Amino acid sequence: MNWEEVGAIGQVVGAIGQVAAACGLIPTLFYLAMQVREQNRANRRASLDLHSQQQIELIRTINESADFGAIYLRGLTSFESLDPVSRLRFGAYLMRVFRYWDGIYFHYTDGAMPPQFWQSVRRQIQDVVGYPGVQAWWNTRKHWYTEEFNGLIAAVINEAPSSNAYAAYTLPTAPDTAAGVR
Questions:
Q1: Taking the CA atoms of the chain, what radius of gyration do you get in angstroms?
Q2: Domain residues of the chain, as ranges?
Q3: Cβ pair 81, 176 in contact under 8 A
Q4: Residue range 86-111, pLDDT digits in tens
Q5: Which of 3, 52, 72, 129 has its CA 20 to 30 A from that of 171?
Q6: Among residues 57, 91, 47, 52, which one has the least CA distance to residue 71?
Q7: Which of 133, 125, 116, 114 is nearest to 155 (CA)?
Q8: What is d(CA 87, CA 76) in angstroms, rounded to the nearest whole number?
Q9: pTM, two decimal places
Q10: Are the CB atoms for 168 and 141 separated by under 8 Å?
C-alpha cells in the first residue's frame, strides 16, 4: 500500500465521520426546536396566568370595598365631582388598571399575547375608557404612558367615545356629564 492509498482511505474515513456527525446533528436540532417551542408555550401560559391574576386583583379592589365601589361608580361619570381623597383613590385605581392594560398591550405587540386574549382585553378597555370620568382622569395622566399606548387609548376613545358597560348599576348623574364635559 502506498501513501496515496492511505490518504484516500483517510479521506473516506473522514467523510464517513462527517456524515455520521451530520446524521447526529439533525435529530439534535429537531429535539432543540421542540424544546424551544414547548418553552414558548409555557412562557405564554405563564404570562396569561399572571395577567389573569392581576385582573382578579383589580376586580377584588372594587369587590371588597363598598366604599371604593361607590367612589368608582361616581368617578366613572365625573372625575371632577369627586372630593379630593376620592379623586386620589379613583385615580390611583385607574393608574393600576391602565398599567395593567399597558403591560398587556406590550405583550401583544411583542407577539407574546395571543390575539384572541388581546381582543377581549381591548373590549374591556373600550367599555371603561368610554366613560367621561375615566377620560377626564386620562387627560391628566396620559403623559405617564408611552406614545404607542397613548395612540391605542386615543383610537379606542375615537371608536366608542361613550360607554354603557355599567348601565345596569344605575350610575349617579353628575352635573359635569350633563354639560358634556369629557
A1: 29
A2: 1-64, 66-182
A3: yes
A4: 999 999 999 999 999 999 899 899 88
A5: 52
A6: 91
A7: 125
A8: 11
A9: 0.68
A10: no
